[in-house]
């Protein structure tokens, strides 16, 4: 009998944990949305994944993001080079700290 109560207590703790973390509300909302769908999806699990925000991104979206990342990395590299060049050119026109202190 004590074993039954211990497992019931653990089950209740887990339920409270899920409730506190918002898991129960999220699952309930997704299941209600699935229930209210007039045309049930062929893949209910995929429906749940997408509505929970854990679905895999579309390959088109992923490819678009890869291209954007590549472009931004190239732009970043160009800006770093430009920054180095401008610093080098600026040093040609600014007197060094040693010359300024000697005057």
UniProtKB/TrEMBL annotation:
<dbReference type="GO" id="GO:0005634">
    <property type="term" value="C:nucleus"/>
</dbReference>
<dbReference type="GO" id="GO:0003713">
    <property type="term" value="F:transcription coactivator activity"/>
</dbReference>
<feature type="coiled-coil region">
    <location>
        <begin position="62"/>
        <end position="89"/>
    </location>
</feature>
<comment type="similarity">
    <text>Belongs to the AMY1 family.</text>
</comment>
<dbReference type="InterPro" id="IPR026060">
    <property type="entry name" value="AMY1"/>
</dbReference>
<protein>
    <recommendedName>
        <fullName>MYC binding protein</fullName>
    </recommendedName>
</protein>
<keyword id="KW-0175">Coiled coil</keyword>
<keyword id="KW-0539">Nucleus</keyword>
